[in-house]
Amino acid sequence: MNRSALVRSPGRPSRHGRAAGGRRWRRIALGAAGAAVLAAGGLVAAWVVSGSPAPGHAAHIAGSPAPSPTRPPRPRPPERLAIGTIGSYAVTAHLLHLVDRSRASLGPRALPTVVRYPVIPATAAASGRLARGLFPLVVFAPGYLQCDGSYGSLLDSWASAGYVVAAVEFPRTNCQVTSPDEADLAHQPGDLAYVISRVLAISRESRGALAGLVNPAKIAVAGHSDGGDTVAAVAAGSCCRDHQVTAAIVLAGAEWAPLGGSYFAKATPPMLFVQGDADPINPPADSITMYQADRSGPRFYLDLFGSGHLPPYAGHGTPEPIVARVTVDFLDRYLAGQYRAGAAMRRAGDVRGAAALVSGGQPPP
Question: pTM for this one?
């Protein structure tokens, strides 16, 4: 049985249309799995959380918005390791209490960031020893009124494959805020840049859960919906291009006009665009426009047949495993430099009746 949630979307460009009286509303269609994710706060049920409250609990961080009284409190995840379904590593997590004070005109911006990272191979996970070494970094941007936990299965898959995955919660659009402001998306590329810099700095420290984990030369960004808009700007927008980024994944994103500037005018990193062709929130044309405009390097478009806006990236049913497998293969090829992963990505993305992967400007089916 499908459910839907209506959320107000102030300040959003016309891509989602307007309701009577000039107010914009966004209808998010969720299957049973998606509704359960939102109702439970989207927590993954198998983590070790290092010295922190539950992932996404922005209310526990000084200066951050209090949770809405209409939302149930989030349970603390069980104290055990998650075993990745794709990679050979087990996964644990640590919450960073980040506050960006570098942009004086904005005031302090609380940016709680859940960092998932590999521990020892899953075959010996019970010992809980860390898997030391330099792992590539993926910084993830959630969608509007979402927190990292909504995407827990996908992010766990990336970490299990040998990536440090840092998922930020934006201060005015996360799942806990009582008065969301979607126009704050204008500041989210700067938030990602700050998170990248802080995670790299923490990794350079001699002690701590993340010490010595991150390879500073291998950084990717990924995001969904408004988070995908943010990532597109960081990877390809003249307003916000971050040249530290060497690969990007845009899940149901678009070019966001209020950021200004142009897109794909200069060289961009390898990019993967993922889009459900039945998405009622982000029209497939937005993703196709970006994919076809990107002419400077490797770019791919994963077309998910009959898929909507959130379920392809949150949950465990089809096509979530396809998205997980293709995105891991993309990261393996273009972030970790594993050349054989390119062929694996093409095989994983072509599933009869479910998905098709095209590249180099070839139109999706």
Answer: 0.79
User: Beta 89-96 vs 49-50: how paired, if at all?
Assistant: parallel
Q: Which of 29, 60, 34 is nearest to 153 (CA)?
A: 34
d(CA 197, CA 38): 30
Comparing CA positions, the residue from 281, 133, 139 lying closest to residue 213 is: 133
- Under DSSP, is residue 333 helix (H, G, I), strand (E, B) or coil? helix
pLDDT tens-digit series, residues 327-338: 999 999 999 999
Residue 34 has pLDDT above 50, yes or no: no
C-alpha–C-alpha distance, residues 127 and 226, integer Å: 39
Strand, coil or helix: what is 240?
coil
Contact (CB, 8 A) for 282 and 309: yes
Nearest to 142 by CA among 260, 251, 274: 251
Query: 22: which residues sit within 8 A by CB, 6+ positions away?
Result: none
| Confidence (pLDDT) at 85 | 61
| 52 C-beta neighbours (distance < 10 Å), count | 19
Where do the DSSP E strands lie in the chain?
3-8, 25-30, 49-50, 82-83, 89-96, 99-100, 109-110, 113-121, 135-141, 164-168, 214-224, 245-251, 271-276, 299-304, 355-359
**Which distant-in-sequence residues (6+ apart) come within 8 Å of 221 by Cβ?**
138, 139, 140, 141, 192, 231, 234, 235, 242, 245, 247, 248, 249
**Closest of 34, 58, 74 to residue 169, by C-alpha:** 58
Q: What is the pLDDT of residues 280-311, one digit of tens each?
A: 999 999 999 999 999 988 999 999 999 999 99
Residue type, 262: S
Helices (H), 105-187: 152-160
Q: Coil, strand or helix: which one is 247?
A: strand
DSSP H helical segments within the chain, as ranges? Answer: 32-39, 152-160, 188-204, 226-236, 284-293, 320-334, 341-349
Homologous superfamily, domain 45-359: Alpha/Beta hydrolase fold, catalytic domain (3.40.50.1820)
